[in-house]
């Protein structure tokens, strides 16, 4: 009986490293809009957009590209993209700032009419694909989407 009990304890102890070594499933990075600044221009309307890239994984993620559409209130869609390597550490967050142009978004004053509250929050939806550096068993292009509110600020005319 002692031999059987010892064998069971030994089997449990031996299995611990194998269970600990099992990797968690890969989760794509979460991408949200952190800041939206309307830049002075007549046409096309220009924006500076800061995206937040949150890596929920316990290992770093290398992002090769973003391609997305940003819907602002109900006033139009701004196309955006960024190409270049961005390494987001394990369980970390990084910001990416891009300048975007749009002929589709109507006038800035009309867009400002959709803001709410003293901090001028504007509803947004963002969706697209993020291209990751290839890893075994991970699809290179991963779709993403998010929605929320972002403060809309403007820069003074120069």
The value of Rg in angstroms is: 23 Å
**Into which percentage range does the β-strand content fall?**
over 45%
**Portion of residues in helices?**
10-25%
Unreliable residue runs: none
* Name of the CATH architecture: Sandwich
The description of the largest β-sheet is:
7 strands, mixed
Shape: elongated
- The helix/strand series, from N terminus to C terminus, equals HEEEEEHEE
Tell me the count of domains. 1
Number of strands: 7
Whole-Å distance between the termini?
87 Å
CATH class, anyone? Answer: Mainly Beta
Q: Count of helical segments? A: 2
The CATH topology turns out to be Immunoglobulin-like
* Sheet with the most strands: spatial strand order: 4-3-6-7-1-2-5
On the 0 to 100 scale, the average pLDDT is 85
Secondary-structure-derived class: alpha+beta
For the structure shown, list the relevant keywords:
158 residues; Immunoglobulin-like; 2 helices; elongated
């Amino acid at each position: 009986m002692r031999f059987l009990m010892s064998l069971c304890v030994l089997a449990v102890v031996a299995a611990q490293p194998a269970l600990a070594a099992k990797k968690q499933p890969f989760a794509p990075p979460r991408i949200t809009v952190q800041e939206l600044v309307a830049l002075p221009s007549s046409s096309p309307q220009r924006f500076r957009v800061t995206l937040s890239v949150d890596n929920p994984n316990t290992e770093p993620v290398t992002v090769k590209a973003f391609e997305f559409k940003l819907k602002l209130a109900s006033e139009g869609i701004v196309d955006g993209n960024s190409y270049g390597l961005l390494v987001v550490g394990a369980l970390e967050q990084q910001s990416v700032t891009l300048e975007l142009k749009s002929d589709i978004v109507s006038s800035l004053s009309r867009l400002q009419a959709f803001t709410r509250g003293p901090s001028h929050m504007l509803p947004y939806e963002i969706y697209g694909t993020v291209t990751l550096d290839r890893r075994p068993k991970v699809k290179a292009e991963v779709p993403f989407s998010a929605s929320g509110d972002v403060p809309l600020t403007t820069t003074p005319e120069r």
